[in-house]
């Protein structure tokens, strides 16, 4: 099940770029962008930002691998914003390709939070949403497009977008796009883009397929490898509980009751996620559900409810391992073991982001001991073994409902109705992870 291919690829001896930059103001960034970053409370770059931004500003192609939650979004948005400011000519100048609608929407939100009044509005090009607003943004002359490959390819077929003036291509989470079968779309899109463009590629892993993509579409890229990309963050405590099938949900409920804060629960299948979310709701937990079979409006509502605290628990398939970005997730629980080792890393990477601490628990049956051992060997990690008896039982359902309501603020109507300041939690949920907690740490 768990292969070492990605591990070997990630250990290739590529040069790791280091930077002594201690603030954005020390980079070759315009005063306008610096002011916008300060307003958003970004002053100190993360390692991936410190390494990638100077190279990108120098016009070089960049291939960066780093763990999730490290602030990769600003690493490509800042160079793109600088280009738009320095070259104010009509036409699409920058294209950001991402694997999911949720990620595209959040990249767009991050850009809008930073662009101010000197930078033009961007266009969102994704499936699952009405295209009228998307087409209006293109017709108004958007110079930055954030898109998923499938919908963009459709727009190209219909001759709705022109890339003759494109200068920057960003491939964000390139390995995920390839995992989702977007390689044919990527090839088609790249074939019509100008050859003299700059390409910035960000990936959590360096699979052989990603390396092949790099060879085809990048020109002598600067290789940036920051930290271990195939190991969980050191800020996350990783533990595993061996439990029988009949006691599995009881243990899950006990874990949810034990840890306060947002909890993200992963299952392997859509049906399993639906069943589990329904059972948790019946037991009094405030749980939402997200998987690839839901409509975009359903997925957006579930994610928004989780972000805003209306739901403390989000049950998800691996769609959420990289497609969902929510800050301050206290506990990730693998209700089912993932099917590949890389998914374990991306699941666990939802907590302990940008220097914060986190907890990740995995539930497995006795018959799955070999799978867990193989997972440890593949990733070169040791998972702490725990006993179900060490977790106090969950409180009765009625008490738990009251506790959930108190935790989410549902019992404080006055507080919910009170106007929020510009820096309230609701104003921060549009920011991407990495950048979210990065800004918090600057306060």
Fold and architecture overview:
With 443 residues, the chain is of the alpha/beta class. It folds into two domains: 5-226, 3-Layer(aba) Sandwich (Rossmann fold); 236-411, Rossmann fold, CATH 3.40.50. 43% of the residues lie in helices and 15% in strands. It has 20 helices and 14 strands. The chain has helices spanning 5-10, 31-39, 47-57, 72-86, 101-115, 131-139, 149-157, 174-179, 183-191, 208-217, 248-258, 270-282, 296-308, 319-323, 341-348, 369-379, 397-408, 413-417, 425-428, 435-442, and strands at 62-66, 94-97, 123-125, 144-147, 168-172, 198-203, 222-226, 236-242, 262-266, 287-290, 313-316, 329-334, 358-364, 384-386. The strands form two sheets. Strands 3-4-2-5-6-1-7 form a seven-stranded parallel sheet, sandwiched between helices. A seven-stranded parallel sheet has the order 10-11-9-12-13-8-14, with helices on both faces. Strand 12 (329-334), helix 15 and strand 13 form a beta-alpha-beta unit. Helix 3 packs parallel to helix 4 (72-86) and helix 7 (149-157) packs across helix 9 (183-191). The radius of gyration is 22 Å and the shape is globular. The model is unreliable at 3-21, 411-415 and 420-432 (pLDDT under 50).
């Amino acid at each position: 099940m768990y292969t070492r291919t990605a591990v070997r690829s990630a250990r290739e001896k590529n040069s790791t770029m280091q930077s002594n930059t201690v603030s954005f103001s020390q980079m070759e960034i315009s005063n306008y962008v610096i002011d916008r970053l300060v307003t958003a409370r970004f002053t100190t770059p993360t390692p991936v930002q410190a390494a990638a931004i100077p190279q990108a500003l120098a016009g070089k192609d960049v291939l960066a691998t780093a763990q999730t939650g490290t602030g990769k979004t600003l690493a490509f948005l800042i160079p793109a914003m600088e280009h738009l400011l320095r070259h104010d000519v009509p036409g699409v100048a920058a294209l950001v390709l991402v694997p999911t609608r949720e990620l595209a929407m959040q990249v767009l939100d991050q850009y809008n939070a930073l662009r101010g009044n000197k930078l033009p509005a961007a266009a969102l090009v994704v499936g699952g949403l009405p295209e009228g607003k998307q087409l209006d943004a293109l017709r108004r002359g958007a110079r930055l497009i954030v898109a998923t490959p499938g919908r963009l390819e459709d727009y190209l077929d219909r001759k709705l977008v022109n890339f003759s003036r494109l200068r920057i291509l960003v491939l964000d989470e390139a390995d995920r796009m390839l995992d989702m079968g977007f390689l044919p779309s990527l090839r088609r899109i790249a074939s019509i883009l100008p050859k003299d463009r700059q390409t910035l590629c960000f990936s959590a892993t360096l699979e052989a397929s990603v390396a092949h993509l790099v060879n085809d579409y990048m020109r002598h890229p600067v290789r940036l490898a920051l930290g271990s990309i195939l190991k969980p963050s050191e800020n996350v405590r990783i533990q595993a509980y061996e439990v029988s099938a009949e006691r599995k949900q009881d243990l899950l409920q006990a874990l949810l009751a034990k840890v306060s804060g947002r909890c993200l629960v992963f299952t392997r299948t859509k049906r399993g996620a639906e069943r589990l979310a329904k059972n948790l709701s019946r037991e009094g937990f405030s749980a939402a559900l997200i998987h690839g079979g839901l409509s975009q409006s359903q997925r957006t509502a579930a994610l928004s409810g989780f972000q805003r605290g209306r739901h403390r628990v989000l049950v998800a398939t691996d769609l959420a391992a990289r497609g969902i970005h929510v800050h301050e997730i206290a506990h990730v629980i693998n209700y089912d073991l993932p099917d590949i080792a890389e998914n374990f890393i991306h699941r666990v990477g939802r907590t302990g982001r940008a220097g914060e601490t986190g907890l990740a628990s995995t539930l497995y049956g006795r018959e799955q001991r070999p799978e867990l051992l193989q997972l440890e060997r593949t990733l070169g990690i040791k998972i702490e073994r725990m006993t179900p008896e060490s977790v106090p039982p969950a409180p009765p359902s009625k008490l738990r409902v009251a506790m959930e309501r108190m935790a989410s603020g549902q019992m404080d109507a006055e507080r919910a109705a009170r106007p929020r300041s510009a820096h309230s939690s609701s104003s921060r949920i549009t920011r991407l992870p990495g950048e979210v907690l990065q800004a918090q740490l600057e306060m």
